[in-house]
Amino acid sequence: MEVTVEGTEITPEEFRTADWITKVGKHVKELRDAARGDRQGRQDSNARAESGTEPGDDKKKTAAANAAYKKLGHKIAERSIVSYLPRLPDNDYKIIIRPKCGLALTKIPNTRLSEAVRMAAQIPWIKGQEKEVFIVNDKQGTLIFSTPDIDTVWKVTRIKSIKIEGKSYDVTAYLAPHEDSGRGVVRGIDPRLSVEELTEAFDNSRNPPILGVRKLGNSSSAVLIFKNGTVPRWTYCYGVPLKCVLYKKRYEVCYRCGQLGHRSDVCISDHVRCRGCGMTAPPEDHDVSPSVSCVAKVI
């Protein structure tokens, strides 16, 4: 699977950190060995071509080297946006709370954010009966609420806004699917339909059991979460067949600051960069001169 994202810069100190080397160093060594074998394979292939013989395992070596490069590139892209978060209970429900705009998570204490979510969901904190776990993922600009209680899930997913220091911030809350659940993307739906209307529309006997529906912004696409791991080729919405394709995890990129992990509509960074040339704080009449250094393809 190939994933193309906007590049992000890292300092040499970040690249040389012990944890980074621990995680990626092994793959780098494998890449070097594979690249060395690939070069030798090409030399042998040229020698065989000159002598009129057919190549043997050179194609396999090249394919293995390419696969190793893809694997490392995907790992680097993942590590560049994934925060080092504590492990959550496997059997808990995980709810993702995504602020829409204007909320700088890094500037607000985590305990205050937790209090704001509890107040919005009307879930009191009782000493000695702490079942929930609240985590702030400041890298991706989201809040994670983990709970074993299904009633709490319904309360949290109904949150539309949270209030901090007298100011209200709009949020979107949804239940994260289990790792064993299948996820598919359908296109061609009416953007005016709500999540409740779409859930009812896909409740069709022709469709496999569906746990939930999540709209992709204001577009005509939506993600269907299936109870089983198998994703059907076709689904039916109001009796209309819609093609369903396998959901592929993609890493969000901000076109405002150039960083990975969040979208531009929720960016709160003060460092605005030109998407085309990388210029800091570009004026409105800025003439873009594309630069290769600010764009990268991660495979």
Commentary on this structure:
The chain is α+β, with helices and mostly antiparallel strands and 299 residues long. It folds into 3 domains: 12-79; 93-175, 2-Layer Sandwich (Alpha-Beta Plaits); 182-246, Alpha-Beta Plaits (2-Layer Sandwich), CATH 3.30.70. 29% of the residues lie in helices and 20% in strands. The protein has helices at residues 12-15, 18-51, 58-79, 110-121, 150-157, 195-201; strands at residues 93-99, 133-137, 142-147, 161-164, 167-175, 182-187, 210-215, 221-226, 234-237, 240-246. A 5-stranded antiparallel sheet has the order 2-3-1-5-4. α2 (18-51) runs antiparallel to α3 (58-79) and α4 packs across α5. It is globular.
Summarize the structure.
This protein is α+β, with helices and mostly antiparallel strands and 299 residues long. Helix content is 29%, strand content 20%. Strand 2 (133-137) and strand 3 (142-147) form a beta hairpin.
